[in-house]
Amino acid sequence: MRYYLIAGEASGDLHGSNLMSELKVHDHEADFRFIGGEKMLASGGTMLKHYREMAYMGFIPVMLHLCTIMRNMSLCKQDIQKWQPDVVILIDYPGFNLKIAKFVHEQRICPVFYYISPKIWAWKEYRIKDIRRDVDEMFSILPFEVEWFAKRHYPIHYVGNPCVDAIYKDGQDGNYGNYENDGNDGNDVIAILAGSRRQEIKDNLGKMLSAASRCGDYKLVIAGAPNIELDYYKKFIPDNIDVEVKFGQTYNILRSSVAALVTSGTATLETAILSVPQVVCYYMRMGKLVSIVRKFIIHVPYISLVNLVAGKEIVTELVADDMTEEKTEHCLKEILPGGKRRQKMLDDYKEMNRILGGPGASERAAKEMIKILKNRIYGV
Length: 380
Description:
This protein has helices at 10-26, 38-42, 59-64, 66-83, 94-107, 128-134, 144-150, 162-170, 198-213, 230-234, 250-255, 266-273, 287-297, 305-310, 325-335, 342-356, 361-378; strands at 2-7, 31-36, 46-50, 87-91, 112-115, 137-140, 157-158, 189-193, 219-224, 243-247, 257-262, 278-282, 316-319. By secondary structure, the chain is α/β, with parallel strands linked by helices.
């Protein structure tokens, strides 16, 4: 069958590549065309555009590149129309992908599958109307989404979380489940994961480093995002702080870390899967205003996936004006070896991992997609 995939960020490229690999295992005639990155390209098929040419986030960058975005949108629509795939598989990236879903649905080209749901349970809940209308099947990677969508009369498939797959495959022994970072194995690193977007790094990195540098004789290592150059990080590293920036080694950095400061996102979940105690840091300018209006625009009690999956507060979240160097330092010291919150967090991680489920998300998603498609095409 012919699969058209669209991923707009590095994480989508990773999870898209794993999905493609599994689709090839269970469909020996699988043919791919996609928007993605190097990982998807390595899985085979033809790349229309690299996600780096698509990834404009925030109001001002979008407005400045509006013509480019519209050209990319038009190119993608024309390419799908010409190639006539058996299915379009959208991977997160809702601002672009939901418009593609509408086009494919209106033109009746093929079914639309969504892998990795847009986070409409947090904001922009109105998008559920577009999803009901334009998306034939949703494949979720977060267990709490099943109930959320069911209450809105849109049943979905929970396939497990591909972060577990990625970590499982990345581990030398493949046994992520027995990995525990108890601080007694010689680890002396505090990992700094400051986000994958420039604004996140600009707002958070300096404060994170200053707080961590006051927490004892630990090495500070920044896990560099794949789309950010080293010189950009250097702009926000204080002159008096010794720190190393490493790219493409996030999991290895975490495995050698005694604790981590993490900007909210998928990284919080990856850090928890690897049993590294963490503080979630997400400073935003005009923090007091953000804190006031947050409850009116964010419809979930937490911002970290760790707490959302567990349904309770496991990791401390320092958000907006709550994220100060002093509070970050205090919370980090509580989860370092000997800290009063460390062991409780490690114990809670085990329960979160149980809820999340074991590896195999990509395989389960691929098999379910192929089953649905065969039923639609052949009635089997």
